[in-house]
Amino acid sequence: xxxxxxxxxxxxxxxxxxxxxxxxxxxxxxxxxxxxxxxxxxxxxxxxxxxxxxxxxxxxxxxxxxxxxxxxxxxxxxxxxxxxxxxxxxxxxxxxxxxxxxxxxxxxxxxxxxxxxxxxxxxxxxxxxxxxxxxxxxxxxxxxxxxxxxxxxxxxxxxxxxxxxxxxxxxxxxxxxxxxxx
Length: 182
Fold this sequence. Notes:
By secondary structure, this protein is mainly alpha-helical. The chain has 5 helices and no strands. 71% of the residues lie in helices and 0% in strands. The two termini are 31 Å apart.
């Protein structure tokens, strides 16, 4: 087996390196999911606009939070699709393109993990806020929530926050170790 680190790869190395392209259908599938979220957003927006005169302020707020939730999940999809493809499959070569996202120029697996954790916290926050707004029915017959359910939703949100802090701390420690090593 050759130890040459040049551009020529042996068959096994080529196969292993080329296997990254197996992720392409996954990213294409996420683009389809993005389309589904666009459809959902438009459906909810239509519902809001056509029913606005009959909704109370709380209902409008819940619908708007639902729209924000869809947008945040869509943003998460974009981060995973673009950042993941750029990090794990192939360069997009967008340098100098006027629409290149600012964050893409310094994306790597660590940055992507932290950004995803923050996006998940944002999405969880929206869900928790929707619950707190709609909690006025708690304990009544038609309530969508129970005290236990609200408690678990809050605990899970806190776990997301602690996980993100742990990821960011670990990333920072690893970055400091790399800087110290060099």
